[in-house]
Amino acid sequence: MENEMEKEENIKERIIRKSWNLFSQKGFEKTTLNDIIMSAGISKGTFYYYFRSKDTLLNTLSVIFDEEYRNVEEQMPADLDSFEKLMYLNYRIHTYIGENFDYRLIANQYAAQLTKEDASNLLDKNRFYFSILNRIIDEGQKNGELRDDLTVTEMVKLYGICERALVTDWCMNNGEYSLGEYSKKMMPLLFGQCRKK
Amino acid sequence: MENEMEKEENIKERIIRKSWNLFSQKGFEKTTLNDIIMSAGISKGTFYYYFRSKDTLLNTLSVIFDEEYRNVEEQMPADLDSFEKLMYLNYRIHTYIGENFDYRLIANQYAAQLTKEDASNLLDKNRFYFSILNRIIDEGQKNGELRDDLTVTEMVKLYGICERALVTDWCMNNGEYSLGEYSKKMMPLLFGQCRKK
């Protein structure tokens, strides 16, 4: 049973990952269902077992991002303080986004969130993203590395606001510069007041 | 001739101002062209002299905002330093937006910018918004109140990123809290690193 669930999870995640690769390479419109099932090595039936349509896949960006957050956490250097951990996380994820996603895809997802045209799950409070941020910030407040006159929730929200601002700006500049390098410079400026002096 | 131009400007601005009042009160869809010409006290012909359609008016948000920036500048207390001036400006404008605009209208404009569905002029470099920010930041760097290891342009951009982040977040929370009061708390956190220590 354990194995069955694990296998299911793997197939679903593989479909998601392969699809986003295709969306970035060929564009969302030009990616066909056939491209997706070929690339994931599955049947049409298997695809429809997990997803209603190609459009449904647009709501899975958070799955992809969270997978990367888990990777990055494993690779996190041990000697960083809490503030540095947050900056490292941001730098790695924004580098990942900048290098692997067409800015138009990201822009469309963010715009859809704003106008509530879809039920994007980037804001789902159960995301790994929120759990890792909560953990690092809570730790940082307890050991005196982050200011503690804001609640953990407020600081997580502020961190999210900063990231969203940087990604949005990158999109509005047509992805012309490196999202990772720009964030490396700007994120400590935007979030720096949260570090305890 | 001077008077003619002034008069034209006034009519155009009145149409814009009255229209946005109506959009916020009744919603954009439910506002008719008739509502607009009645409210502005003009004929249909006069409306079409200035605007192609009701839709065209959506691109005039920057005109409204800049009008308010001019008002706020006139009311700016004389004893503020450059950083405080920037915070005052932000607080006043965000209070104005929060109190006068339906969050859905703002969300749609910001989303449209992201997906380039329209040529919104909020980012037009000739806006009064950019000129007043440039002026205050340049002054602040020269008299040592703001850090000078970023260019004026970089700092104006950062200020814009922060404001956009706060407005976006307010929209995503369905305008549930006061944009002005939230910004009063958050803007000094987000932009605080630009103050010279």
Characterise the protein shown here:
- Two copies of one chain form a homodimer.
- Chain A contains nine helices and no strands.
- Chain A has helices at 2-26, 33-40, 44-50, 61-75, 82-100, 103-115, 128-142, 152-172, 179-191.
- In chain A, helix 4 (61-75) packs across helix 5 (82-100) and helix 8 (152-172) runs antiparallel to helix 9.
- The A-B interface holds A 104, 107-108, 110-116, 123, 157-158, 161-162, 164-166, 168-169, 171-172, 186, 188-190, 192-194 and B 104, 107-108, 110-115, 123, 157-158, 161-162, 164-166, 168-169, 171-172, 186, 188-190, 192-194.
Reconstruct the topology from this structure.
2 copies of one chain form a homodimer.
Chain A lengths: L1 H25 L6 H8 L3 H7 L10 H15 L6 H19 L2 H13 L12 H15 L9 H21 L6 H13 L6
Which features does this protein show?
197 residues, Arc Repressor Mutant, subunit A, Tetracycline Repressor, domain 2, HTH_TetR (chains A, B), homodimer, mainly alpha, 9 helices, globular
- SS field, number of helical segments of chain A: 9
Q: Gyration radius of chain A, to the nearest Å?
A: 18 Å
CATH top-level class of the largest domain in chain A: Mainly Alpha
Relative strand content of chain A: under 5%
SSE order of chain A: HHHHHHHHH
Q: What is the CATH architecture assignment of the largest domain in chain A?
A: Orthogonal Bundle
pLDDT averaged residue by residue of chain A: 90
Q: State the low-pLDDT regions of chain A, or none.
A: none
Described by the principal axes of the CA atoms, the overall outline of chain A is globular
CATH superfamily of the largest domain in chain A: Tetracycline Repressor, domain 2
- Greatest chain-chain contact: A-B, 29 and 28 residues
Major β-sheet annotation of chain A: none
